[in-house]
Amino acid sequence: MKIGQQLFRTIWPVTDAALPGHYQVAIIDQTALPHAWRILTLNSVQQMVDAIRKMQVRGAPLIGAAAAYGLALASQQSSTDETLQAAASSLLASRPTAVNLRWAVERMMRELLAMPEALRCAHAWLEASRIADEDVRINQSIAQHGLALLQALAAEKPGCLNILTHCNAGWLATVDWGTALAPIYAAFDAGMDIHVWVDETRPRNQGASLTAWELQQHGVPYKVICDNAGGHLMQHGQVDCVIVGADRVSRVGDVCNKIGTYLKALAAADNQVPFYVAVPTPTIDRQLEDAIRDIPIEERPADEVHMMAGLTSAGTVEYVRVTPEGSAAANPAFDVTPARLVTSIITEHGCYAPKDLHDMLQRIDPI
Q1: What residues are annotated to the active site?
Q2: What is the value of pTM for the model shown?
């Protein structure tokens, strides 16, 4: 995507000037947005683990690509079985909910452990780049399949199409294009009259900080709303559909996404508003039957609830406390939306009702 007039991905390898023949990994520091634009250069698997844990890189597809590049960094130090296994374990422990991380690590390890040590490092960088390129192609396909849904909705109503989204599932959450925002970008580029309601997405405010920033960069009309406003807007006919991403989808179509998604799905069902989930197929966990029981829900630090960051009139970013000193806080990062509340799941292979998801997976890759 473009920032100013320059094309960017969210993650990319760069030559290490200090060590000829070695690479580093550049990332956009998403914790600095929207108030500052900062690119970080990572040199080790531990730095990648820290970047994932601190959410400097975030979003299920991007975490998968980051993990792949993390293993490439590890292989640059040593390509032994023991080193790679330790690196894989560290990456898998960095954030437990998003299935793409595990998918990417397992794919990389299958490739690397099957070849001689001397060939592993070069192949790790090649395979990590393949994973990143595949993510871009997948998201471009999601954009086109989702565009068809939006065009069908627009054909049934006059005027502007109002779309609500929760959290950030745009290009910042992937290598490029995004998942939930990809159809929105495609619709805008096709000349459709659209407007996006952007949930703030407490406590980390990925909607207010990241989605709003992305849409602004692309020129898409939007308004930021507090998380509790969505149901009211649906009741008054001001939302034509909801599109969200996901960190993990079960094989029966239950959707694990940012905390608060379930409440939006309930409101959408009550008001007959279509609820779409846009995901690449690596986000679908074929082994998962009961998402509410079996998905480990990340519990993030309480300070994310207690503290909020903002830009002061002096142009500095400051953190302020919004709860009484001594208050306890719980901070589950995700919730599960049951398949019965999902209208359609938009994948790179097409759009499917949750009940058809398993058959689709068997057709494209029977295992």
Answers
A1: 247
A2: 0.94
